[in-house]
Amino acid sequence: MAALNLESALQAFKILLTIGAGTGLIFLLRKSWWRINAYTEITGMIASFTIALYFEFFHERPGFTPLETHHQLLASIGITTIACVAITLVTQPTD
């Protein structure tokens, strides 16, 4: 559905970049924090995908000022990290 609303390849690239920025920290933390589990990774993927779609298609509709790409990436990293750490602490760690 989102692919039908894309106007250029640049939009698709920005969405993929935002998704990657959001999930990148989780992939790095997986190597050093024993509490990271499948729920953490699934939450990271869903959160970063949702945030990427929000910034690309919905952020400006209510009249918000457009954000620069680097601000979108920082917001994606921050929100995804908060969501993932919360889910990690709430769920059981794996063996």
Commentary on this structure:
This protein has helices at residues 9-32, 38-58, 69-90. With 95 residues, it is mainly α. The protein has one domain (9-90). Helix 1 runs parallel beside helix 3. The protein is elongated and about 45 Å long. The model has no long low-confidence stretch (mean pLDDT 89).
Brief description of this entry?
The chain is an all-alpha fold and 95 residues long. 71% of the residues lie in helices and 0% in strands.
Which regions have little confidence, pLDDT < 50, spanning 5+ residues? none
Number of helices: 3
* Gap from first CA to last CA: 38 Å
Query: The biggest beta sheet, please?
Result: none
Q: Kindly give the count of domains.
A: 1
What's the number of extended β-strand segments?
A: 0
- Radius of gyration, in Å, reads 14 Å
Shape annotation: elongated
List the helices and strands in order. HHH
Q: Strand portion, in percent?
A: under 5%
> Helical percent range?
over 70%
- Rounded mean pLDDT is 89
> Structural class per helix/strand content?
mainly alpha
Keyphrases for this structure?
mainly alpha, 95 residues, 3 helices, single chain, 71% helix
